[in-house]
Sequence to fold (437 residues):
Amino acid sequence: MTSRPAPKSFHVKSFGCQMNVYDGARMGELLASEGLRQADADTAELIVLNTCHIREKAAEKVYSDIGRLAKRKTGKPMIAVAGCVAQAEGPEIARRARAVDVVVGPQAYHNLPRLVRDAAAGRFALDTDMPALSKFEALPKRRVQAPSAFLTVQEGCDKFCTYCVVPYTRGAEVSRPWAALIDEAGALIDGGAREITLLGQNVNAWRDGARGLHDLIEALALLPGLARIRYTTSHPTDMHDGLIAAHRDVEKLMPFLHLPVQAGSDRILKAMNRAHDVGAYLRLIDRVRAARPDIAVSGDYIVGFPGESDADFEATLDVVRAIGHAQAFSFRYSPRPGTPAATMDGQIEPHVADERLQRLQAPIAEQQMAFNRATVGKSCAVLIERSGKRPGQMLGKSPWGQSVLIDGGAIGDLIDVEIAAAGPLSLNGRVSALAMV
Ligand code: 5AD
Ligand code: SF4
Fold:
């Protein structure tokens, strides 16, 4: 590699989960604090691809993006690969894609400015360390200006589900300290956030000493200016009584729960190392619904896990029917290198898994539509996040997490809206008279 001028502008493209969106925002803030200007993907001198390794399809996307960037009409930018592919495939990326200048893992991106300087000096720069001292302490203070903001409270995973790369790419479960989180929440609110979504691979495993996630939620609810609190993603075995009670007691905690069960067969759950059975999951949902009857229940499902029989798959359909989701995500099992399930007997033919996926998606889509339809005629508060496609149209979120299109209001308003119509993916609302709340 030869040396070149240091880049003066950047663009971050995030793939995958919300934690990547959060990391992408923080990398952007870091680069901006170093004097780089944000630009679009066609002109930026540095492109950060913040990648996802969860399924093969997601991981492969990065290589096609690198190929495109290497041939960019406006000149090849400096390319940094960040995120979970960087962590998992580190040096291999450099071998496979020579156009890459920087590789930086999810626990090391506070070093991005130094890595960029190294690359500008002509040295390929790689950092996939998982340092004991958290990157958060090295990052600049938040200055996001948006009505809805993410706040990572916990990272990593100790659960080791047999299909999942997260424990390897993100490392062990680590909770950020209480004081740092209250401080960051304050900075987000100062920047205009009215809603904060607490993020973690196992967000409900967050703790600081004797304090659990519900204590943090209660403390955040006391902050003036903050109207809404959400959290994601949770694991059933960390769904403690205090958090369930918070859904009853804390008004600012939104009625939405993303709690993946993954499969409906106890045999498959065991092979997945999920540490809970279907009965325990359903009892948990009953308890959450007793605390907050209107709660929107979201989930994740994997079909075609090794050894999944027709009967196992039917059990997954039964579980979906028993729950009644407001929304759910379903995936075809993707064997990931280094995970135990990738070498298990009984790998399922792709066409069988595809057929199961389609059969699962049908009831989920019906349930989602039914959930949306049930809100028609109701009034609810909508937090306006951005403008819609048509002039004057705005897009916001209902308490249950649905997108709501309305004519009127401004970004950051929390307004009372009557739901007039429902589609599969969004609602249409009318601003109620005297609506500002
Ligand atoms: N194949 C398919 N889906 C997966 N997920 C995690 N690992 C895999 C895999 N190897 C799904 C799980 C998880 C969601 C984020 O992605 O459902 O909850
Ligand atoms: Fe992956 Fe399971 Fe951890 Fe979720 S709980 S991140 S699915 S290992």
In short: The first helix runs from residue 18 to 33.
